[in-house]
Design a protein that fits this description.
By secondary structure, the chain is an all-alpha fold. Helices cover about 60% and strands about 0% of the residues. The chain folds into three domains: about 5-180 and about 295-320, no CATH class; about 190-260, no CATH class; about 320-353. The protein has helices spanning about 5-15, 35-50, 50-55, 55-60, 75-95, 115-135, 135-150, 165-180, 200-215, 220-230, 235-245, 245-260, 290-295, 300-315, 320-350, and strands at about 20, 30. It has a two-stranded antiparallel sheet with strand order 1-2.
């Protein structure tokens, strides 16, 4: 069975019957838990992605768009692939043939991690480029396609073709224009007031919202605060009152109530789901330096990395599966070369006799 067939089997089995829960003591069959899922995403990342790409993931969790900050890098890459399929199809409809568009996705419908290694790496790198810019994946892909089609290409680009310095500058400029006159924020439940736990991503999202409110004026500001405090509930009233005053907040509350736009409470997000997506990822953890030094759960992450490495060792017999894969490929190439050389020598010897 190939490694990609194995990945596909795991995807199906996980949804139907659960995976074996991994711990330092034992593996006991149980339903798929949040920790099982995290280990699964971690395993695929280490199996297919170069460690140098994994090492920059903690930095990206400080820049990427808020929707993705609680997703593991592998899970975020699947989200990127979903957005790419959608934007590829839309581009085909606009530029190629609207009748064929329904059958054009650019990527197979199945998991990214069933694809060949080169394609996986290209999608991963393109997703990281979007994370560096801090834009939603759909926005990045749409703007990238539009940029390349404006006299630079006659084909819908592949994910790796979105890795372009000029393209990145174009996307950044378009995002600045897009957000200049729009109220753009995350609808992820992690950022709701009832789920706020002081995590760095949650604090950063509140700062983003406050800056949006500062940039608005008059009725526009009142509308923003009505949404942030009472409709979407992503900013606490006391924080807004401290900066804008209780009178304006009261008017915003009246506007939300009069419009019957108050939403029902949502379930609390489990504590385990409030960890940053890079939590427990081997290679990415760098104690005492960079984003890891600022992370409030650095010690817990160090323990999780040890568990992850144990999981990798149990699954692959090594904590560096990609390196071992490359070594195995090299050994196989050398074996074939030697076999070919021996065969050529035998043929030469036979001809001489």
């Amino acid at each position: 069975m190939s490694e990609h067939e194995s990945v596909n089997d795991e995807l199906s089995a996980a949804a139907a019957s659960g995976l074996a829960a991994c711990s330092t003591d034992a593996a006991i069959l149980q339903p798929l838990t949040a920790e099982d899922k995290r280990l699964k995403w971690m395993r695929w990342a280490c199996q297919f992605i170069d460690p140098d790409h994994l090492r920059i993931e903690p930095e990206l969790f400080e820049s990427k768009w808020f929707d993705y900050r609680f997703l593991s890098p592998a899970e975020a890459t699947e989200k990127f692939a979903d957005a790419y399929r959608q934007k590829y199809q839309e581009a085909w409809r606009r530029y190629m043939d609207r009748h064929e568009a329904a059958h054009k996705l650019g990527l197979p419908k199945w998991s990214v991690f069933r694809l060949d290694r080169r394609t996986i790496s290209g999608i991963w790198s393109a997703r990281q480029a979007a994370d560096i810019l801090g834009v939603p994946y759909g926005f990045f892909i749409y703007q990238g396609i539009e940029y390349l089609f404006s006299g630079r290409s006659r084909h819908v680009p592949r994910p790796n073709q979105l890795l372009n310095v000029e393209l990145a500058g174009h996307v950044a400029a378009e995002w600045k224009k897009y957000t200049a006159d729009r109220v753009v924020f995350s609808s992820d439940p992690h950022y709701l007031n009832e789920n706020f736990c002081g995590k760095p991503a949650q604090i950063a999202h509140r700062e983003w919202l406050m800056e949006l409110a500062r940039k608005s004026y008059g009725a526009s500001r009142r509308f923003c605060l009505a949404n942030f405090c009472f409709i979407d509930r992503v900013l606490p009233v006391e924080m807004v009152e401290a900066e804008f005053g209780s009178e304006l907040v009261a008017k915003a509350r009246d506007e939300a109530i009069s419009g019957s736009m108050i939403k029902d409470p949502v379930p609390t997000v489990p504590a385990g789901d409030l960890r940053p997506g890079c939590f427990g990822l081997p290679y990415a953890f760098q104690p005492g330096s960079g984003p890891c030094s600022r992370c409030p759960i650095q010690s817990e992450c160090e323990t999780a990395v040890a568990v992850s490495c144990g999981h990798l060792n149990k699954r692959f017999g090594t904590t560096e599966p990609l390196k071992e894969h490359k070594l195995a490929q090299n050994r196989e190439r050398q074996r074939r070369f030697r076999a070919k050389a021996r065969a050529a020598k035998l043929v030469g010897s036979s001809g001489a006799s």
